[in-house]
């Protein structure tokens, strides 16, 4: 079935992006760089998985399933906000950035 | 920038539309009953709650807003591929940096949208908005605002600031007319 191929490809792409986001979380040298993986790669990975779910349930059950769009939109809205709260807390705690980070003097004291 | 809607019974037209669509999506149906219920909720909830909120600028150019939304979606996909390449490459070669972007926007809602798009697009995470509200003295009413962002791999600071201002800030200014 063609839709099964489509769903499988989407799941693989989604899984790959989530994996890359997690690798970034583990591999990066400092906190600020670690944040980049989860805020971006994981969001797109989740979107791909949700589209796969939408296609799968639309084909296997009666009627189309569109709830997944809602989940994707809420994820898109909330991911940057949680990232923002984390980095704000990190700046407040004066976490050390990797050596050679430029523009550290742009951070103002509060 | 316009804060008040034309129709007093529909203070926030796009929030009403969003509520309407969300209700139908949650129920996964477009039967007559749900359409009526969604309409009632979409009109009643904003009327009951808009007094609790600070008035935010309305979207005055919906067509442009939709175009900007699609552009941001496209950028999110390309940004993800770029960041994936950066993550899988050698992390010693990365040049992380903090960059201060001067903002032309003044209202909270457009700034929030800008900060979120910056977080979701190429190699940048927004970190802070200066000046911090608590530190503003009463003498300077309208201080220049800055968005502090963390960049994963900085090539050219000027070019990055220019890109953010042109690609993401200018459309927002036009959408909200502020």
TrEMBL record, chain A:
Transmembrane stretches, start-end: 6-25, 37-57, 69-87
Keyword match Transmembrane helix: yes
Keyword check for Membrane: yes
Single GO term (MF): sodium:proton antiporter activity
Source superkingdom: Bacteria
Pfam family, one: PhaG_MnhG_YufB
Keywords in alphabetical order: Membrane, Transmembrane, Transmembrane helix
InterPro entries: PhaG_MnhG_YufB
UniProt name for this protein: Multisubunit potassium/proton antiporter, PhaG subunit
Protein source organism: Pseudoalteromonas denitrificans DSM 6059
Organismal lineage: Bacteria, Pseudomonadati, Pseudomonadota, Gammaproteobacteria, Alteromonadales
Automatic annotation (TrEMBL), chain B:
Major location (coarse): membrane
Keywords: Cell membrane, Membrane, Transmembrane, Transmembrane helix
Membrane spanning residue stretches: 7-26, 32-52, 64-88
Localization in the cell: Cell membrane
Membrane association type: Multi-pass membrane protein
GO MF: monoatomic cation transmembrane transporter activity
One Gene Ontology term, aspect cellular component: plasma membrane
NCBIfam families for the chain: PRK08965.1-2
Family: Belongs to the CPA3 antiporters (TC 2.A.63) subunit E family.
Protein name: Multisubunit potassium/proton antiporter, PhaE subunit (TC 2.A.63.1.1)
